[in-house]
Amino acid sequence: MSVLNRRSRGALFARLFPFAVAGAAWGCVGETSYSKQLAPGFAPSGHAVSVLGVYKDGQMSSGAWDAIEPRLSRALGASRCAAGYTDALSSTHNAIATAIEDYARSEGPSDELLGRLAPAAGGDLIMVVTIAGRLPSHESEKDEVQHASPSMGPGGGRNGMGGAGPTHAPQPVSTDELDLSTTLFSVSEKKAVAVVSERYLGTSVDEAVLNLAAKLTESLPGASCAAWNWDAPVDADAIRHSIESP
User: What is the pLDDT of residue 62?
Assistant: First the structure.
């Protein structure tokens, strides 16, 4: 599995989520480390959250959410919380789906992109899950990793037909850790207001996702899942035109 190296991921994170709060990190538990960053003034309780989807291997992945949805949905007070960016979106609103895919591949899931999608969000927060890295591929672990993440291989765009990696990132390299993060974007404030993240060095994808779900539940008490309405006025051409030139 190809992934961005740690320096590239750090640079992307800093560009997309510039806020940081001193003393907000949880620290380490065994081989796993966690952090929580909240924008000044953000009150974490009682939010309705619309999940856009998963950003992985430098692009949005329509299938990756299916693998982690059962765990993370419960953190949003639901047995199932459907993502906005799915194969179904490409069949009903193909122009929007293509614009999301093209923008995220070039610029990442930035405030610019989420702000343009905000009219379609039913919640007051939009959540994007970012997955980077991999677990050690020992023989005893291969079946588990493949079972836990059937759509999380290279080229995880819509219908498994992703393109090249991010325009502004160096060539990806492999790593033996799994970095998971959930970023919360405020519809009203038009910016990211919270990031809950995990760096996992264990051997189970399911355990890593379960850990992140527990931290998300702790970080957003009383959260609920909100649907998307893609008939809302989302300007796909404006999204495409806002992509920076290489």
Answer: 87
